[in-house]
């Protein structure tokens, strides 16, 4: 093996199913593990290449339809909250359903979200990182920004014959073009923004200066943001139908109402000839937590957060029980995760084994509890292979599409897809991740890059004691400081990211730097959407800032891109 490097570039084909960013010294990795053709999805090794020719078509022949897909997304739940990651009863959260499903499925110990809710939800729906889909921060109180103009997973699945249903928290834009019925969903029941937007200004404990002032309360009531539970269908693309006003009392009932709605949908789909895609986003366990009266005080910890955690375990259990009772469990992929790490600034909150919390580029902010369960299809095991929630886009299309289908069949050539098809990781008995590298984003920052167990930290938040400080929640204020120069850590030996040891990691640096440059080149070729400002002091993007802005403005002027028909 010589000392030359081989670069996987996304030039004319930005939708490939391999880790196209990785730069490696090992040509065998590229020759044997990264081959791609129109007749093969990206499956990392020989057993994985042929996995789609075994159980999946056989199951389709048995059931008469493609597999159902259920994404169950928690809110503000930390990596170590569920029992399957060492939490559970040890931290006052009884999570028997999560633990049972995880034990019967694939636990992904290195699965990653973005640092906050809206960017993660958009990443799941578009297969893009925040710089590419443009939703860098959660839009609050009627702010602009959302999925409008994007090609989404439910859009593609509808083309493939799926019935698409979204239930629960949306928070991917309140503008007309970003409403659920306009980005691929046949039906939506839930609210459009975020839990605390409905509660924080009503709660005397959190905001007495507003809640105890009739004038200020009237001011909040007059602001133009969603305040009701909504029902949305394509019958009216301009708006949704208002349901009940969401006040402090009704907030407690939302997760059970949404549970009942999803259960009813699953039951209706029992005799359908079409497969379904169900995206269920919970209100819990987002701060401020309001467990239902039925579950208040039921957790071992007896905190509102743990009570909500136990309640969410029950909600998941009811959905899975309905799949089993209706005979749909063996034809349904259940994917469980959280939208970001725990919100440590508003205790009581979730727990993580890592440094940092929600709104952080540290591991605690973006590494989330995740498993994939598919009765009889996914072998029970744990994997430390990298998984980005953007990979759900490619993987969902791979499972739903015809043999030989590619993401490029559904996405404009000018749209860059950051996700990678992880079908082989899920379905092969000893499947490996198709991903070796993963970037970390925070607002407009490319904050870090992970390759295998190594993390190259470019930008990080100032911390003061236990609580991260100086970045105002991580998504609404400036980043306080950088680490004073890039640092490389080994996440196996230093999961707290405390002691960078550059000398010991020098053998990795050429690979890391070349891979980082590959990401930057792709940002110029496939520029970010203009839904937020770039951080001018972002070290890796600083020199590229003029090019990025010019390319992004050119893209915006070109108007929406039409996907292939």
SSE layout:
Blueprint: E1 6-7, E2 23-24, H1 27-33, H2 46-49, H3 55-63, E3 68-74, H4 96-103, E4 106-112, H5 117-126, H6 130-133, H7 153-159, E5 163-169, E6 187-191, H8 195-199, H9 208-211, H10 214-222, E7 228-232, E8 241-245, H11 248-268, E9 276-281, H12 304-325, E10 332-338, H13 363-366, E11 371-373, E12 381-388, H14 391-400, H15 423-427, E13 437-442, E14 445-451, E15 454-457, E16 463-464, E17 467-468, E18 487-490, H16 506-525, H17 539-542, H18 545-558
Parallel strand pairs: 3-9, 3-10, 4-12, 5-6, 5-9
Antiparallel strand pairs: 1-2, 4-11, 6-7, 7-8, 10-11, 13-14, 14-15, 15-18, 16-17
Helix pairs in contact: 11-12
InterPro entries: Alkaline_phosphatase_core_sf (IPR017850), Sulfatase (IPR050738), Sulfatase_CS (IPR024607), Sulfatase_N (IPR000917)
Family: Belongs to the sulfatase family.
GO molecular function: arylsulfatase activity; metal ion binding
Write up this protein:
This protein is α/β, with parallel strands linked by helices and 565 residues long. The protein has 2 domains: 69-422, Alkaline Phosphatase, subunit A (3-Layer(aba) Sandwich); 439-558, Arylsulfatase, C-terminal domain (2-Layer Sandwich), CATH 3.30.1120. The chain contains 18 helices and 18 strands. α11 (248-268) runs parallel beside α12. The longest helix is centred in the middle third of the chain and has 22 residues, at 304-325. Residues 1-17, 24-47, 464-483 and 532-540 have low confidence and may be disordered.
């Amino acid at each position: 093996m010589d000392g030359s490097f081989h670069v996987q570039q996304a030039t004319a084909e930005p939708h490939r199913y391999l880790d196209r960013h990785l730069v490696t010294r090992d040509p065998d990795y590229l020759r044997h593990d990264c081959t791609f053709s129109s007749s093969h999805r990206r499956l990392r090794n020989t057993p994985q290449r042929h996995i789609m020719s075994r159980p999946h078509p056989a199951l389709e022949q048995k059931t008469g339809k493609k597999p159902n897909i259920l994404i169950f997304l928690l809110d503000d739940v930390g990596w170590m909250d569920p029992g399957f990651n060492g939490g559970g009863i040890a931290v006052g959260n009884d999570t028997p359903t999560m633990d049972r499903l995880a034990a019967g499925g694939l636990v992904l110990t290195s699965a990653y979200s973005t640092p906050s809710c809206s960017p993660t939800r958009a990443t799941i729906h578009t297969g893009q990182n925040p710089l590419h889909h443009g939703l860098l921060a959660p839009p609050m109180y009627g702010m602009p920004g959302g999925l409008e103009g994007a090609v989404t997973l439910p859009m593609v699945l509808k083309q493939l014959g799926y019935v698409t249903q979204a239930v629960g928290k949306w928070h991917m834009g309140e503008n007309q073009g970003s409403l659920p019925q306009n980005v691929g969903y046949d039906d939506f029941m839930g609210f459009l923004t975020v839990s605390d937007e409905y509660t924080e200004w009503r709660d005397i404990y959190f905001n007495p200066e507003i809640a105890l002032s009739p004038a200020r309360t009237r001011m909040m009531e007059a602001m133009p943001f969603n305040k009701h539970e909504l029902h949305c269908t394509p019958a009216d693309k301009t708006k949704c139908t208002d349901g009940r006003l969401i006040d402090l009392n009704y907030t407690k009932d939302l997760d059970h109402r949404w549970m009942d709605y999803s259960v009813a949908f699953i039951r209706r789909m029992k005799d359908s000839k079409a497969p379904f895609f169900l995206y269920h986003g919970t209100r819990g366990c987002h701060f401020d937590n309001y467990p239902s009266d039925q579950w208040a005080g039921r957790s071992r910890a007896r905190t509102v957060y743990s009570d909500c955690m136990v309640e969410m375990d029950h909600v998941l259990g009811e959905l899975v029980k309905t799949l089993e009772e209706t005979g749909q469990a063996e034809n349904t992929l259940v994917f469980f995760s959280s939208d970001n790490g725990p919100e440590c600034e508003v205790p009581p909150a979730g727990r993580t084994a890592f440094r940092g919390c929600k709104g952080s580029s540290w591991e605690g902010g973006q590494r989330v509890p995740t498993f994939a369960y598919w009765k009889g299809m996914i072998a029970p095991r744990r994997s430390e292979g990298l998984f980005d929630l953007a990979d759900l886009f490619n993987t969902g299309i791979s499972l739903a599409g015809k043999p030989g289908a590619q993401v490029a069949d559904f996405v404009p050539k000018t749209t860059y897809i950051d996700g990678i098809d992880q079908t082989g990781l899920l379905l092969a008995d000893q499947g490996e991740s198709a991903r070796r590298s993963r970037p970390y984003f925070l607002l407009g920052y490319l904050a870090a890059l992970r390759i295998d167990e190594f993390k190259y930290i470019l930008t990080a938040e100032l911390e003061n004691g236990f609580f991260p400080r100086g970045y105002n929640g991580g998504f609404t204020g400036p980043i306080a400081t950088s680490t004073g120069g890039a640092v490389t850590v080994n996440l196996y030996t230093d999961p707290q990211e405390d002691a960078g040891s550059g000398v010991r990691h020098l053998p990795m640096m050429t690979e890391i730097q070349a891979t980082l440059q590959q990401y930057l080149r792709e940002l110029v070729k496939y520029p970010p959407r203009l839904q937020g400002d770039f951080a001018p002091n972002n070290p890796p993007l600083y020199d590229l800032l003029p090019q990025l802005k010019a390319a992004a403005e050119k893209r915006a002027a070109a108007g929406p891109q039409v996907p292939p028909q």
